[in-house]
Amino acid sequence: MGGRPFDRRVLARDAVEVAPQLLGALLTHRTTEGSVIVRLTEVEAYRGDGQDPGSHAFRGATPRNAVMFDEPGHLYAYFTYGMHTCVNVVCSPAGSASAVLLRAGEVVSGVELARERRTSARNDRDLARGPARLTVALGLTLADNGSDLFVAPFELTARSGQPAISSGPRVGVSGAGGGAAYPWRFWVTDDPTVSIYRRHRAASD
Prior knowledge:
By secondary structure, the chain is of the alpha+beta class. The protein contains 4 helices and 8 strands. Strands 1, 2, 3, 4, 5, 6, 7 and 8 form an 8-stranded antiparallel β-sheet that branches.
């Protein structure tokens, strides 16, 4: 679809700075089935190293989160709720963990393939509307953990233009990492593919 490659140096910043920059960017994943391209419309930032109680890296490096401490631009994939895979873009310089969760997007190419993967989607708006749905639409699995987004079969293309951006509390984060104290969810204002916000019952206001 053209466009200029995303600058890896932008990803070497803190996730809270990087997250809004990813909105409107195009993420491509090519497989033997074909290619799907998603325009990112909703993301969440997570810090680590004792800074963010909502982050998997809050208590330091583990085998599960090791890629969060890797070079920026890699994928951090994890399994959640015993059924879903979610993916993050690793940010910050190597050794400093932070990442941006890819929460939602619009499938702009490869719609037919995304429909085959997401047979339960009621319409095209819902193909990648939510972090697990986005992962399925793109054909990503846990095996993609650690993949470099700047190397085939991936491509990350910078957005064209400046979308209107909104921010608010992260979804499903409880306790000290939740609520209005962490307005680190960012989305393209009024975009229909943004997921529905559900406040965690234990999150502080």
